[in-house]
Design goal:
It catalyses: adenine + H2O + H(+) = hypoxanthine + NH4(+). The protein has 326 residues and is of the alpha/beta class. It has 17 helices and eight strands. It has one domain: Metal-dependent hydrolases (TIM Barrel, Alpha-Beta Barrel), CATH 3.20.20.140. The relative contact order is 0.14. The site of 6-chloro-9H-purine (ES4) has 11 residues, from α4.
């Protein structure tokens, strides 16, 4: 239809992207070769075939195995630069990306190596591609509060290159309240915070994120739809939700895109945005997520425009920079 070029041409922000989730199978093989590592797959095609998940945990197992090829500053630079080049092609003009430092620290990769590589690529992307950015350090919720606090301590010398803190990985059994003291500390240090909640976990986890952690943004938040009072609160306070349609489909959070809660949440007045989450694993970058919505939901041109505008409203850019795009 005629809305396809509209999707491509709209200036967009991406607010929910795990940089390790942009690691394409081709790059897994290239980095394994460069670093002298053996992979348990004979070729790119057989690795891609392993990208078939029935839930979040099955995905996470493959995701953590894949990122083990990231070793050097240059590896982290190349990964981030490849994403930014794709972003520019899709008219993404602002990105707020996550990285998972604990997953790399566990493999003996220093925090400096990770941040030096990722941040240098983001700086080059700002200069050469005109893409503004924020970098979000995301804690792994399946690990302990103590591990998260140790990671925050280790990150102290690098906080001038960090803009906010997030929380991801296995959700059920690891509620936001487990990290209430951690995020209170992050807020006290003056940082923005966002957490994954209500992807597989119950609406109560979204409620905890909002009222206990006092997040600036909810990542996913699909299951907020099950709690009427929570919906009213999210709409009234305009707390953004970063929705990820193709991710939800691949991880069976929704059985079909026709059942995706996006339009219901939009109609209830919530500040929802569209994002790609882990595009190398979920079958598409940001534009593909917009196109999939257009194909499977009765979504209007005005609603597509609203979603792109919301991505800037929900961003952590200062008001004067948002105003350029809205
Ligand atoms: C993630 Cl889709 C998703 N959910 C939770 N944690 C994650 N880490 C990377 N992708
Ligand atoms: Zn995510």
């Amino acid at each position: 239809t005629t809305l396809l070029p509209f999707i491509e041409q709209m200036p967009k922000a991406e607010l929910h992207l795990h940089i390790e989730g942009s690691l394409e199978p081709e790059m897994v093989f290239a980095l394994a070769c460069r670093n002298g590592l053996q992979l348990p797959y004979p070729d790119v095609a057989s690795l891609r075939q392993a990208y078939d998940f029935s839930n979040l945990q099955e995905f996470l197992d493959v995701y953590y195995a894949g990122m083990a090829v990231l070793r050097t500053r240059q590896d982290f630079y190349d990964l981030t630069w490849a994403y930014l080049q794709r972003a520019q092609q899709e008219r993404i003009v602002h990105v707020e990306i996550f990285f998972d430092p604990q997953a790399h620290l566990e493999r003996g990769i220093p925090l400096a190596t990770q941040i030096d590589g990722i941040h240098a690529a983001l700086e080059d992307g700002q200069r050469q591609l005109g893409i503004s950015f924020r970098l979000i350090l995301s804690f792994l919720r399946h690990l302990s509060e103590e591990s998260a606090f140790q990671t925050l301590e280790q990150a102290m010398p690098y906080l001038n290159r960090i803009d906010g803190f997030g929380l991801d990985s296995s959700e059920v059994g690891h509620p936001p309240e487990k990290f209430a003291r951690l995020f209170a500390r992050c807020r006290q240090l003056g940082f923005k915070i966002c957490v994954h909640a209500g992807e597989e976990g119950p609406p109560d986890y979204v409620q905890q994120a909002v009222n206990l952690l006092q997040v600036d943004r909810i990542d996913h938040g699909n299951r907020a739809l099950e709690d009427e009072a929570l919906l009213v609160q999210l709409a009234a306070r305009q707390i953004p939700l970063t929705l990820c349609p193709l991710s939800n489909l691949k991880l069976h959070v929704v059985q079909q895109l026709q059942q995706h809660p996006l339009l219901k949440l939009l109609q209830r007045g919530l500040l929802v945005t569209i994002n790609s989450d882990d595009p190398a694993y979920f079958g598409g970058y940001l534009s593909a997520n917009y196109r999939a919505l257009l194909e499977h939901l009765p979504i209007s041109r005005e609603q597509l425009r609203q979603l792109a505008c919301n991505s800037f409203t929900a961003s952590w850019l200062p008001a004067e920079d948002k105003a350029v795009w809205i």
